[in-house]
């Protein structure tokens, strides 16, 4: 039975806080192993990649080659279901159109005293995209990571994907081609992260590495951070549904289960002001669970981390949701917009009964790489801004320097940085 | 003597690459110590802060109190040089005006098939600002970190600053007040980072921690990343000057030394097409060095990491500069704008002879927290975007779901996520 909480319960605040504080993922301590792999890749390059792929993925890259060939990608496309290919293509177009609106504008202006200031955005030269192998190789994730980089103007996009037992998912390769990925390499794990960060004979180094991975990949990304940029480290995923009596319980149950089927550490929470809806959703979840292919995973997630919270008034759901800072928030009520406006922390908000979260996973156009595990308190979903950087621009003439230079001199001296002060003063001295 | 490189030298590419690859900072391995301190602060809260402050800063916080009082701040202001206070106030106003232009705009639009999409920006609830103690306690850094957070709309800004031997810099406290810092605590080191991340009896936890610190602070920030957001980890600082024969060698020398005085691991590089300017700058550096209060530090930096590179044509400076991806780039040439336009990687660009980098450190208005150690290849300077996060918004009606739902169903099935597919399909079935 799923946890049922009532906001009227005198212990509610603590029970709810405990629900959020429950650690949903055991973090493996793999840092020591990863440090060794990274150092080895840095030293031995391709040779190390071949060794680790042999050991971990049971493939011989000295025969297959480290880089996936254009012929293999073309062949993979012919293996794909045409309907899935068409769906990927629609998804790509919608993601591209939405992300194009995120391109930041350069700015250059002159202020009241004549100082020119500016912000100029430029794309990263190169980006590495990590794609997990096996069942977690999601073609939609390839699009969600690669398309924003290409929209940003990144010229070189290198993808790494392990090929365990010699198999690469055809639809993943097709997605890479659709998204404009420039190079694909059949390596994974910490060794692939090392190759992207330091470079090998075959793989040129990149400026930033994005994409999800297991504990080894996450630890490797943390370690190479600084040498290259990295995206956020993804944690277990969650959905929170705010719904009132007007919502369809079967639809809500389906959404809670779509989240729960991801993995056993996913979390699905319903907050409602209607105890009857709470009951109906709970029953619908049980009914729908029984026929799901991934019912064991979904059932474990729902049993261990799922929750239904009943509040007195639907507005009371807002502060509770902000406490969760959910990756995905669905608002399915008679009048959702005031609730949407009041929410402060969420990765993405899905409004109304006809916007299941799965639409956002695939074809909505917005990104499905979103801040997990309460990090929406301080982080955003992936977007074009993750693939560009800003350069500040400053230009003074003699008059402007005379106006603000003395303050710079005073602060330089106050901080004990005399050479700073002198670098300004020397230009204000007519004999300088 | 400083390194002199000529781009005409057949070994130049390697020599230049070696110059950049030189590790300028020894990274201390303090991670194990830091892990212990963080765990202790998490467990014992204020008591741990009092113990570590006693041990590391030789102050008794059980008497002084952990929080700096409004009375202390008021008293500190009376100790400050009025000229320095006025300069700080000018700096604050200019930083505020420039950063106000960085506020991102919300967007909500309806696409061609009627899907509503949006991006909404909200400020972080709370931010912790780390300020180093001792000689590295720079009031200008307080402004550069705090003002953008306040411009972003952060309601609670908590500053931590160690008080070694009982001393707090009055101008640092004055800067905190000017910048609108809400709470100041006299703790530093890994323990202060732990307090901001996990909270103690006196210090409420924050959503993100920013600000520079020593190796312990950097290691602590890396460790708490995920629980809270962090800014980039700052490395040793650098300036690169591109100048032609029209530039004043004394001014350039002053700028190279302003960078070099920061610390012995700072790096100052001049690239010029004029060998006479190269000679004149080298001589001016030696001349100016002799009278600098921090001449030992500046001389060590210039000797160990400084360089003068002579190129045949000033345009050849651009790819070399991009290879450095300098934190600060000065362009002092007869016609700087084409060079500015061609540059791809730099934290900030200072244009023309009357824009010494020190203006940007204090009163230009742009931020002086910039990507160091080649990270301008993928990172931006600190700004308002570091204190806000984006929520995606998606809304479909029945018609839109009919249009794009089938593609979501196809992709869900292709990825083996049947519950995803069903959460869409159930809404397309008239009986659902």
UniProtKB/TrEMBL annotation, chains A, B:
Cofactor binding note of this UniProt entry: Binds 1 zinc ion per subunit.
Pathway where this protein functions: Amino-acid biosynthesis; L-histidine biosynthesis; L-histidine from 5-phospho-alpha-D-ribose 1-diphosphate: step 9/9
Organism: Hansschlegelia quercus
Sorted UniProt keywords: Amino-acid biosynthesis, Histidine biosynthesis, Metal-binding, NAD, Oxidoreductase, Zinc
PANTHER family: HISTIDINE BIOSYNTHESIS TRIFUNCTIONAL PROTEIN (PTHR21256:SF2), HISTIDINOL DEHYDROGENASE HDH (PTHR21256)
Cited Gene3D superfamilies: 1.20.5.1300, Nitrogenase molybdenum iron protein domain
Name of the protein this chain belongs to: Histidinol dehydrogenase
NCBIfam families membership: hisD (TIGR00069)
Function: Catalyzes the sequential NAD-dependent oxidations of L-histidinol to L-histidinaldehyde and then to L-histidine.
A family per Pfam: Histidinol_dh
Record-listed Zn(2+) binding positions: 259, 262, 361, 420
Gene expressing this chain: hisD
Entry binding sites for NAD(+): 130, 191, 214
HAMAP family registered for this protein in UniProt: HisD (MF_01024)
Active-site residues, as the UniProt record annotates them: 327 (proton acceptor), 328 (proton acceptor)
Protein family membership: Belongs to the histidinol dehydrogenase family.
Enzyme Commission identifier(s): 1.1.1.23
A GO molecular-function descriptor: histidinol dehydrogenase activity
